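for the writeup, i need someone to sanity check this before i put it in the appendix. the sequnce is what the collaborator sent (i think, or maybe the updated version? ugh). structure was predicted straight from it, no edits. if anything looks off just tell me and ill rerun, i have time this weekend
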Amino acid sequence: MTPRSLFFLILLTLFSCEKDDICLEGTPATPRMIVLFKDYENPQNKKGVTKLLIRGLGLADSLTAFSGDSIAIPLRNNYEFTQYEFTLSTSSPTLSDSLQINHRQFDTYINRACGYKSTFIFENPFYYELTQSGGWIKNIEKISDTLSDEKKSHLAIYH
């Protein structure tokens, strides 16, 4: 192959890519729900959790260990609800609460490489407790009706 033909081959390859062939970093993606943990006794104060295990019910391999006062967790975009089990592994006996978050979903087409971005609207009632007694969660508050980005909190769990 001659240098001239190699040059034209490289030039052809460079110009054959469409901008939709690559999903650039920073392109909006489906946001996760920001959960803030707060003190039940002093609702204005954040209260972190230690060794919280979060398991998505109906999701394969979805166990997350967490410590802190806020976390971003995904919502299911193939159902109108998402179920999670929150287990405090530092308490004895271990305390668990299971919640179902009810939502509607609207998809926006981004491009061929990135696909779709989902926006979620929380339903009324926006949650349902699957466990009815003996848990560690005292109250739940919806902070935002719409989940369209990860810039603010969407849900507060008081404990």
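The chain has one domain: 22-158. The chain has one helix and ten strands.
thx in advance!!
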